[in-house]
Amino acid sequence: MDQLEDFKDTESMNSRPDTLQALFHLVLGAVFFVGSVALFGGLAVAIGSYLYYGEIGDASQLSNLVNALTTKPVALKIFVFVSSSLPLIAAAFLACIFIKATPKHYLSLGWPKNGKWFLIAMLFVFVCVPLMGLMLDINKLIDFSQWPDFYEWLQTQESINHGMYEAMIGEEGTMSLLTSILFMALAPALAEEIFFRGFLMNALNGIFKNMHVSIVVTAVLFSLIHLQFTKIIPMFFLAVSFGYAAYWTGSIWTSITAHFINNALAVGQLYFITDGDYTKALEQGASLPLAVSLGLLSIAILIFAYMQKNADTKTHNFYV
Predict the structure, then answer these.
(1) Domain ranges of the chain
(2) Among residues 8, 19, 70, 267, which is most buried (max CB within 10 A)?
(3) What are 117-173's pLDDT values in tens digits?
(4) Strand, helix or coil at 5?
(5) 154-157 contacts at long range (C-beta below 8 A, 24 or more positions apart)
(6) In whole angstroms, what is the distance from residue 58 CA to residue 132 CA?
């Protein structure tokens, strides 16, 4: 178990909270998240209906509105941003405000203090990224068809997700590419890292007192919330790499940067390689030869061991 350094938010905390308070903070964050989803979901419907119909609609129009917005890529991107990314950011910051913690400290929003550890952590992530194909092959070993109802739901969900990604691309062009990088690469990276590697990983570390467990549990929740079970293992694997990148450098800007670059590469693949075909993009992400994958895995393990032993900027424990 890592012995994490003590941390006190001297600006706002008179004493460091304990395990029970960490659990309360976690529940509080979940409540704020649910509330933010409802609030920003309604706002997204209002904005989307105004952009498409020229008038503000309500939640009862959600299904028809989403289908209508598939013909307006920019409006669809804004709708997804407001309904999916903003709730994550709002929940994290509202939790910080409520517990009187400085967001910069609690969410690890300070810049990485050591360029060397930042670069090595980034290298770790991008050695792990090509292993996503291997993880996807492992995922395919799960026979979801043995649960017919769940399998049917999975196929429907996958079809909807693929259609949404392709609709957001729309007609390829400079403006489409720029808005895709903004709304499909940068916004999700910021929102997901602030909530998962910032708020959630910190709160879980307060409960488990073990950053390794916190990183893994956060990665599990990250994978589950995306509801893409045919890719759940590669998503979990990537989330773990993001977690360690943030932990080793003491800053979620490391994981935000890695997450953004990964998303941007995926957007670039859709624009320049697969002509907007998301299914084709997944197929091209097939695993590397086994020998190459094992070589990359060995490098990742070596980097992991080196960083665990030597990185001196690891995330401090906010809790007792």
Answers:
(1) 105-310
(2) 267
(3) 999 999 999 999 999 989 988 998 999 889 999 889 888 888 888 788 888 887 778
(4) coil
(5) 154/229, 154/230, 157/227, 157/228
(6) 40
